[in-house]
Amino acid sequence: MNPKLSAALAAIIWGTSYIFVTTLVPHNPIFTAAIRALGGGIPLLFFHRQLPGRSWWGKIVVLGTLNCGVLFAFLFIAAERLPGGVAGTLQSLGPIFTVLIAWPLLGNRPTLIRLGSVVLGSIGVMVLLSGGTLAFDAIGATAGIGAAISLALGGVLLNRWGRPAPLLTFTAWQLVVGGLELAVLTVLVGDIPPAVTAANVIGFAYLALVGTSLAFALWFQGIEQLGAAAAAPFFLLIPIVAFALDAAIRGLIPTAVQVLGASVVLASLVIGQRAGKTGTIAKPVA
Fold first, then answer.
1. What's the pLDDT tens digit per position in 203-257?
2. Is 158:228 a contact under the CB 8 Å cutoff?
3. Which residues contact 62 (CB under 8 A, 6 or more apart)?
4. How far is Cα 25 from Cα 35, in angstroms, rounded to an integer?
């Protein structure tokens, strides 16, 4: 598949995830995150059973923690406390963080225009969070930004290290590692729902199989072939899809100020993408 199409489809799928989180799954973010990671990783691992070399175990733990464990925990906390469009816009800050992280780790020095776009994007986020009719939720906003940073760092490291196994096997191991971490955290904090309904099962199935197994395989393919900095702008599609579904299904129409803030964020990301060169493309190790 064309790597740009692959990255775009992954972002679109992630944009749809917010409506499933807010309408079909129980309000237990850590539990839901664990189900999503393990439910997405175990089926892949069942069909693509291969143990990476011992020298890669530590790297897989790091990548699984960033791309799945920390990411999913923050993502579901943000989705529980913020409207889908706002949470999706915070996740779309990933390209900004990718640019900044890729500078020291990949040697991709951003131009002044790209750095200026970072400032512009920060202003847009502040407008978005402070200009709506909903009260500002510091925990939700912090979790959303944390999710964007985690996925950006994980993507850059993936770009730097390459992979030791076929794509689906590599994706599966990261999801299983993150899922096991989240399962332990779920037990420690007691974030377990009292009951699971049929609607919950449908939501879990979509998030695990479509929003995780499929989306992450598509995303990692995009990063591998395009480079982290070039793939990251497809995050732009996440808030667009999330805002549209919030409006169509939940009737949560964004205010004019929120639309302005989101537009500033999207404009800053487009400017930043055009301002510099794409990142170094990772080459598979095996």
1. 999 999 999 889 988 988 888 888 776 777 777 788 778 878 877 887 777 778 8
2. yes
3. 157
4. 11
